[in-house]
TrEMBL record:
Source organism: Streptomyces minutiscleroticus
Classification of source organism: Bacteria, Bacillati, Actinomycetota, Actinomycetes, Kitasatosporales
Cited CDD domains: WHTH_GntR
UniProt GO MF annotations: DNA binding; DNA-binding transcription factor activity
Protein name: GntR family transcriptional regulator
PANTHER family on file: GNTR FAMILY REGULATORY PROTEIN, TRANSCRIPTIONAL REGULATOR, GNTR FAMILY
Region named Disordered: 1-101
Length: 308
């Protein structure tokens, strides 16, 4: 399996228009089949007010590319050599007159969600290095919330810090995903088997809309939508245990297993998603019918041979 290496080519003088999705030179034929890094429906996030930044004396948080780039150059973080950059999928809701367009914490959360979605969709190239100023320019915000979001992703193991350059997308392989799946099985399966004997059928039936949402997203080929709905389904199931720490740990593991590894074809992953989504509905049917043998069998199939 070939892994994509860091990108060292200079960034173009102007960003490509949204919706074209043309692959950069030198990526090869496989790159053209990947999801486009500039989705047609992308809408930039609103930039933070410059006046407020000047009043706070934080010139490096200016939304414009000039102020942000100057601040990052002073910190030694280069802005050249950037691969194609993802854009957020939706803008924040408008605020009432006389109030800030968006709070900084909200910007950081939106950027983090957008970057996680880009990881799931394979829009961030494994091995490539992205700088906070260039990503901020792509999102239409300052470098600061982007850097904070990337630091959170570094804690989650999705990226690694490259001093004076930015953040490198971690290259993942099938073995790592298999290991994460094994851990998920060790955490989730015993809990679900116990819940199968204690939770009434009516409670399981309440989860039907979540299972149906995974089927719709998988059938549409929406990797990001599937990851979100699949995560919501598993979280709802485990929440019935009443163990908040277990839910938090399982939720983090689940998010990491949905990052698309390098070299995995989008089309094949879509086929796998459709099969996985169908297992959710079948699992609910078995839980409602209190068919414990079928529940165990379905869990083995859902998690693979890692299931105890």
């Amino acid at each position: 399996m070939e892994q994509a290496g860091p990108r060292d080519a200079h960034r173009p003088a102007a960003a490509a228009p949204a919706g074209r999705g043309a692959p950069q030179a030198g990526r090869g034929a496989d790159a053209a089949a990947r999801p486009r890094p500039f989705p047609a429906e992308a809408v930039p996030l609103p930039a933070q007010p410059r006046a407020a930044d000047r009043e706070r004396g934080t010139a490096d948080d200016t939304a414009g590319p000039g102020g942000s780039a100057r601040a990052e150059t002073a910190r030694g973080e280069h802005t050249h050599g950037e691969p194609a950059l993802p854009r957020p999928r939706a803008a924040a809701a408008p605020q009432a007159p006389g109030r800030p367009v968006v709070q900084r914490a909200s910007v950081r959360a939106q950027i983090l969600d957008a970057l996680r979605a880009a990881l799931v969709a394979g829009e961030l190239e494994p091995g490539a290095v992205y700088s906070a100023p260039a990503l901020g320019e792509s999102f239409g915000v300052s470098a600061t919330p982007v850097r904070e979001a990337m630091q959170q992703l570094a804690l989650e193991g999705a990226v690694e810090v490259v001093p004076n350059r930015g953040f490198r997308i971690v290259e993942r392989d099938a073995r790592e995903l298999a290991e994460l799946t094994e851990i998920r099985a060790l955490v989730e399966v015993p809990v679900i088997l116990r819940l199968a004997r204690t939770v009434p059928a009516a409670r399981w039936a309440e989860l039907r809309p979540l299972a149906e949402a995974t089927v719709r997203a998988a059938s549409a080929g929406d990797r990001t939508g599937y990851a979100e709905s699949d995560r919501a389904f598993h979280r709802a199931v485990l929440t019935l245990s009443g163990n908040r720490q277990l839910v938090r740990i399982a939720d983090d593991l689940h998010r990491r297993t949905h990052w698309l590894p390098a070299g995995v074809s989008f089309a094949r992953s879509r086929t796998d998603l459709v099969a996985d989504a169908a297992e959710h509905a079948a699992l609910l049917d078995a839980l409602i019918a209190e068919n414990h043998t079928a529940v165990h069998s379905l869990l083995r199939g859902h998690f693979g041979t890692a299931t105890p």
